[in-house]
Amino acid sequence: MQHPLLEQLRQRPLLCDGAMGTLLYARGIPYEQCFDALNLTQPQLIQSIHTEYIAAGAQIIETNTFGANRARLEKHQLDDRVRDINFRGVRLAREAREIAGQPVFIAGAVGPSGRPFQAPDEQRLSELRNLFREQIAALQEGGVDLLILETFSNLAELRQAVLAAQEVGGLPIVAQMSFYEDGHTLSGQSPSRVQAVLSDLGADVIGANCSVGPAGTLDVMLEMIAAAKQQSYTHLFSAQPNAGLPTRIDNRFFYVATPDYFADYALRFAKAGVRLIGGCCGTTPHHIAAMRRALDDCYGCGDSVVLQEKAKIAPLKEKIKIVEQEAILPQQGTRTRLQEKLAANEFVVSVELDPPKGLNPAKILEGAALLQKAGADCINIADSPMARVRMGCIAMARLLQDRLGSETIIHFTTRDRNLMALQSELLGAHALGIRNILALTGDPVRVGDYPNTTGVWNVDSIGLIQVIQGMNAGHDAAGSSIGAHASFHIGCALNLNMTDEEVDHEIEKFRRKIAAGAHFIMTQPIYEIAPLQRFLERAGRPPIPMILGCIPLHSSRHAEYLHNEVPGITIPDAVRTRMRTACERGHEEGLRLAQEMLSEARSMVQGVYLMPSYGRYDVVSELTRMLRSNR
Predict the structure, then answer these.
(1) pLDDT tens across 66-119, in order?
(2) CA–CA separation, 513 and 492 (whole Å)
(3) For the chain, does the N or the C end have fewer beta carbons within 10 angstroms?
């Protein structure tokens, strides 16, 4: 399965962002300061720049990690913060994406080591590769979608960076050299030589950035592309030129290439065959916005869902038939579609999506459309998971129902609402046709964005189930009539990853949830069949349908993170060993592991509940297609 970025690049040009350092300098950060450390000390500044580039129309944004390798950070006494600075840099970019609600790709920016590159020997090359591997591993752990290795002036050094990226594995690699006015790199290589070496290495995208402006960069790219055609290479190409050569005025540097000039060259690059187009030093959101307009006029916006007035994409309703609005007050006993499928003993597939952190739900709607097309029966909508502020789950569920006709399950927690608010929102949800409710207590507020906020918890998850069941019986928690019987379909959670000491307590809690009125079960993710078998042996076959949780793994680092840092998730040694052995094929191995486990569990459960990591909807959609084909 090809990475979504590469699929899109083969279809049309994608626009990357512009300079980070230029904007930081313009906002008062001196060049001698470590720009990468701002990820830790001034995160809002970095995130605001990402947000500006997304608003300008960038489809790929680069993390503020260009110089975040151990050698460069050592100059600022920060060599012990490599992981923190890179990891945080990715998170800031992802936060900006979430808030903007746009389906942009996050690129991990990796620059040269900054050390003088003398005649290479094996020890020197090994040190370089380790240095790049350390940084790239941290970027991957943070959740980047691709890597951009950029501004390298020595081809031997870039080669080590590419090899390091391949050893970490799992991400598309964009490899870019810097060329000068004479059309050669600082170390004397021609564009055709660079193209040949990087093609043989297996870089996914090959190109040039920095040093010269659009005109010089275009000449370099034309030579690269011509050489590739002669050798029958089919690699993709990228170009991110400077905004011309800088002019020094009163001890400050200014770049003279205008946004309109860049817009013209964006089209020239695209017509030449360049697929990833952006800017480097001196470029700003104004340059990117001008390039976006030019590319849209020529190529359109592709398939991305962008909820803006001037977007040129057909609305989602043209892709997926909108269903009629459900009746506000269903007849007593009316079942949801999920309820009907479970009653018919169908194997269901549900996928969890987190609502956006900002105002724009476009990325979530696009992800839901992809999953629905893959065959998902319903979409789970989380309720501000990890105690972080997100769009309300009820509003998001209604958007999905209106635009896609999706069946939804909302997660509804008692953490943020007192007993009055719980009932008020449930009544509103019912009126909006949202009736599959997963009753949860909610994550502790201390782990989220507002650790000093007090959680409510007038009732726990069992109490919430009782409240909802009371509404189904026609009354509120105080026993007063609500005018009719509600038709909620009530779900409860089950943690299968229990220690021996916790088993009896967890089973007792589970039985109380069923007694309170739960209609179906959704479990925490597991990675082997043993926890499910142990539960069934101790508790017996549940009297209500069970839907098994699964987070597909996509790398060894992902597996280790879930196992060691996420409460309630245990990944067996054998599974983590397989992920380590898979190396760069971790994505495929993760899918294989999930498919094997779910196939073994299929006779014991009535569905699967998939949870994507880092917004990788493509992974869970592939698994959904696999499960659908086995129905």
Answers:
(1) 999 999 999 999 999 999 999 999 999 999 998 888 899 999 999 999 988 766
(2) 7
(3) C
